[in-house]
Fold this sequence. Notes:
This protein is α/β, with parallel strands linked by helices. It has 13 helices and 10 strands. Helix 4 (101-115) runs parallel beside helix 5.
Amino acid sequence: MEMPYRRLGRSGLKVSLLSFGSWVSFGAQMDDDRAFACMSAAREAGVNFFDNAEVYAGGESEQIMGRVLARAGWPRPSYVVSTKFFWGIDDGVNTSNTLNRKYLFQAMDASLERFGLDFVDLVFCHRADPETPVEETVWAMHDLITRGKALYWGTSEWSADEIRAAYEIAERHHLHKPQMEQPQYNLLARDRVEKEYARLYQDWGLGLTTWSPLASGLLTGKYLNGVPEGSRATLPGYEWLRDELTNPKANESVRRLQQVAAELQCSLAQLAIAWCARNPHVSTVITGATSVEQVQENLRSLEVLPKLTESVCRRIDELFPAT
Length: 323
């Protein structure tokens, strides 16, 4: 099946329905060669959006992706790259957990240097900052765009009220508005995308670049019998994931979902990714992988999309109801 492309919200930019992200994998689990192989396999299948963030692997993820892009030599107009700012990679009163103007400008310059790029296509405010006035952040993001360092800006894991406040400030001052939000969205995390943001699609055409379609691997069935060696939950710094991934109730629903996947002749992972992509408000589903084989398996989720009839989705809803 050919890769579909969707507009990023109401912008004119089109992104592949499935995209490739570097969270956790780049640096921690993958070197340059494996990253090159995975990104190349994704691109060959039609992926044009590669997601990243300043904080991933403390900046190393951006460096790896930048080296891959230079090695691949793909024409710059043919791909979309993102980064995100908030957490920072240096401890300091103005360099971590903030969206103030000073940090955003310096973080952007450092990010572009790590990428080896003149600009990123998308830049996200990685979390909301309760201590910086929203107006300061909106002006800073607008100025980054007018200076050509980014083309579109958006938010990640902001509440609907926080997004609305930013949008209204931008509209009032005729500034570049937030075009997209990057929320977690999967069978176990539905409410924000399906309920909280509902008016934002209607009012402003907010686009979504959703992350964690597999709930960090839980929806693949990998954790049905405990935590396997070498999995994400065993990585240093990801201990917080262990309890989520071994949740008995969630894993029982996954166990029952296996029957639906078997009937559709697909893997649990493919079913979970296809389910996210079925939502028309989702511009792109960010997938991750540590091998070419995993990239290819994820991309075959597109073949599952036509099989997700209303009756199939009702069965899935019974197993993973929206609260």
